[in-house]
Amino acid sequence: MFSPNKIPEYCRALEENEISEHCFDLIFAFDEIVALGYRENVNLAQIRTFTEMDSHEEKVFRAVRETQEREAKAEMRRKAKELQQARRDAERQGKKAPGFGGFGSSAVSGGTTAAMITETIIETEKPKVAPAPARPSGPSKALKLGAKGKEVDNFVDKLKSEGENIMTSVGKRSTEAAKVLAPPVNMESVHMKIEEKISLTCGRDGGLQNMELHGMIMLHISDEKFARIRLHVENEDKRGVQLQTHPNVDKKLFTAESQIGLKNPEKSFPINSDVGVLKWRLQTTEESFIPLTINCWPSESGNSCDVNIEYELQEESLELNDVIITIPLPSGQADGLDKHFVSSVEASCC
Q1: pTM of the predicted model over 0.70
Q2: Which residues span the domain enclosing 248?
Q3: Which end of the chain is less enclosed by CB atoms within 10 A, N or C?
C-alpha cells in the first residue's frame, strides 16, 4: 500500500530527491493509511480527499456568512442615510434633530440563526502625515534578491565546464493549463449554475477501481421580484446519488414535489450573490458512469516507440472544452518528443 500505490501519486520516480521534495505529502498520506499501528480501510481516492481537506459544507457556510454580512452592511448604510436625511430635514425646519436609538444586530433580520456581524460606519478625517526626513545617501545594505542564486549558478556552470556531472535539483513542478476564454454567459434575472467535479481511478488494462462525483447547484437572483422563487428540479435519478439541501431550503417540499424553496415563505433569497441550494455525491465502480474514456496504444519500433492516445466522450449531453491530458515521463527521457505537445520538459510530463 505504501510503495507501489501511494508514492507514485506524489513522486515522478522512486528517487531520493523526489521523495525528499514530497516528504511531507507522503507523511500526511501515510498518516491516513495507518492509525495506532493498524492499517485503515481506505482507498487512494479517499486518501486524496482527506489530505486536500476540501469541504463543500465549509464553502456553503462561508457563502451564507458572506451574504449575511453584505445584507447587514447594506441595512446599516440604509439606516445611516435615514439618520442623515432626518438631520437635514430638521435643520431646514430650524428644529433640533430627533434622537434615534442605536441599531445593531436586532435591527437586521438574517436568513439563518447564525449570528449577524454588524459594523458602525463612522467617517473621520484622515490625519495628516508629516513627510519623513530624507535619509543620507550612502551604501545600501538592503537584501538583494537573486544575488545568491547567481553565484550558485556560476559555480555550477564552472563545474560543468570542467567535465563534472552535476545533477540538477528538482524544483517545484506546476503544469499551468492554457487559459481559454469561455464564451459569455447570458444571465437572466434568475440564473442557475450546475457544477460537478469527478475524481476516478482506472486500471492499466481497463476497469474502474473507484469513482467519486461531487455536484452543486448555485442560484443567482438579480431581480428582487424573483427573490421568493421556487425552483423545480427533475429528481428522478436512480444511480443512488446522495442529495442534500441547504439548511434554509424546505427539505420536505423538495422530497415531495422536487421544488427548491425557502422554509420561511416570508424570507427571500439573497440578491446579486451565488447561493448553493443543493448538492449531491455519488461513489461507484460502475464503468458506464465514466463520462470520458482514454485509450493508449504504444507501438515499439527499434529504438523508438510510437504512442497513440485517443479520448472519447461517452456522455452525449456534455460538451468538451479545453481538454488537457497529462502523461508522466521518466526523468531525463523527454528527448525526441514533439515540442508542440510537451507541456514542460523540466516537469517530466507530456
Answers
A1: no
A2: 194-289
A3: N
